[in-house]
Specification:
The protein is 39% helix and 18% strand. The chain is of the alpha/beta class. It binds 1,6-di-O-phosphono-beta-D-fructofuranose (FBP).
């Protein structure tokens, strides 16, 4: 069966989307954290107060921590993942949770990484399409993290590669795509165009100065993106809720 409309509107306000991500614990490991934000409660507390339109977690953290914050912000369950310890040339992200896990945790959407161009691409496409088909049967949107990566990819953030990744997400049936910023609004416009009707989110990237990060937000939005899925630039910031408010203004216009 195909064709059930998914419900992206739950993750949007004023036509835009602003998601807080905390799946870096598996993707990068504790190197991303300090004494404060290593505690998942610290980031969950920020999520519950930042007035973003969604919060991204892996299953384990959601199971152990989310109960106390449920209802404060829509949850997006990331259902695949990897560590960065394995070699990057044949990079693969394994399914680690199911659509049913997402439903039983009360999630409003699913997040899934594809490494476009990896030697493991065929397997990842296969894994993804099984999840995407099941999610569609339940009307749950799937947001794809589409990252060009692996031994055949020379420049992960080039205009051509990021646009190819965004287009791949459209072709595979993602409801929205999250990509890395290409570094300038002109090239990012091409990424947004390549994605057609499918909304494009930018990743936040590694922690930048407030000034540089605000500039990046303005550029991304001027290129026609629907918003951001951001992690480190919020919960590594000394004043996370102040930065969240600045982001809300620029992305959601509120
Ligand atoms: P950041 O805003 O912290 O960059 O988070 C975005 C994100 O996509 C996370 O969801 C994910 O854990 C991480 O970046 C993946 O980063 P990498 O590109 O290093 O694999």
């Amino acid at each position: 069966m195909i064709g059930k409309k998914t419900h992206m509107s739950r993750l949007m306000r004023n036509g835009h989307m602003l998601l807080l991500a905390m799946d870096q614990g598996i993707e990068h490991g504790p190197r991303d954290f300090n004494e404060k934000n290593i505690n998942p409660d610290y980031v969950c507390e920020i999520a519950s107060k930042c007035k973003f339109t969604g919060f991204i977690l892996q299953k384990g953290v959601a199971l152990k921590y989310w109960e106390n914050y449920a209802g404060s912000i829509p949850l997006i369950l990331k259902v695949n993942g990897r560590t960065e310890i394995n070699p990057k040339d044949d990079v693969y992200s394994s399914p680690v949770a199911s659509v049913k896990d997402a439903i039983s945790l009360g999630a409003d959407a699913i997040g899934y990484t594809i490494y476009v161009g990896s030697p493991m691409e065929a397997k990842m496409f296969n894994d993804f399409s099984a999840i995407e088909q099941e999610a569609r049967e339940y009307g749950i949107p799937v947001i794809m993290w589409a990252y060009p990566r692996g031994k055949f990819v020379k420049e992960e953030k080039s205009k051509e590669m990021v646009a190819y990744a965004a287009r791949t997400a459209l072709e595979l049936g993602a409801d929205a795509v999250k990509v890395n910023y290409t570094g300038d609004p002109e090239s990012f416009k091409w990424v947004v165009k390549s994605a057609g009707k499918m909304p494009v989110l930018s990743a936040g990237g590694s922690k930048a100065s407030d000034e540089d990060f605000l500039k990046k937000i303005k550029e991304v939005m001027s290129a026609g993106a629907i918003g951001f899925a951001v992690g480190r630039n919020i919960w590594q910031n000394d004043k996370p809720l102040e930065m969240a408010a600045k982001m809300r203004k620029l992305v959601l216009g509120e």
